[in-house]
Amino acid sequence: MSETLPIKTTDEFIADVETMDLSELKNETFLVAVSTGDRSKHKFLTSTVRGPYSFVEMCDEVGNMWYDFQHHAKVVICQKDREKTVKNLDENTVDYIEAFYKDIVVECMLEGLFDDKTYTCKAGIIQSDDKELPVAQVALESDEEEDL
After folding, report:
1. Which terminus of the chain is more exposed, N or C, with fewer CB under 10 A?
2. In sequence order, which ranges of 31-127 are alpha helices (DSSP H)?
3. 14-55 pLDDT per residue, tens
4. Cα(114)–Cα(107) distance, rounded to whole angstroms?
5. Contact 52, 30 (CB under 8 A)
6. Which are the contacts of 22, defined by CB distance < 8 A and separation ≥ 6?
7. Sheet containing strand 87-89, strands side by side
8. Which of 8, 21, 100 is nearest to 59 (CA)?
């Protein structure tokens, strides 16, 4: 179902009135850190990185970070393939989790007993631009520089 749902842009997104489908994230593993700079980019405060988290743990950490400190989170989707670029949740998805983290955690604990929701959008994932190289490419370029 989530394939037909839109990923809403910042201009048209209001977290308090949306019902976001987060199902594609439920089997992922995450790292959470304090976001810095442009929230649609990949920068975060490295000394604040925590994880790995399951989906429920990530939602709880993101929500508590906003509730306790009013810091937006940067959520990285973990992957082992060094050939792939980094994936983060977009700012609208993080805003939605910040607004409804308690409800999301409770719904996960109830394991779908109340699955009669009508979703208005789905989670957005930011993937690195071509300018941002995957880890394997960066490693190759640094090896070439050492040979000089």
Report:
1. C
2. 55-69, 91-109
3. 888 899 999 999 999 999 999 998 888 889 999 999 999 999
4. 8
5. yes
6. 55, 93, 96, 97, 104, 122, 123
7. 50-53, 30-34, 73-77, 87-89, 125-127
8. 100
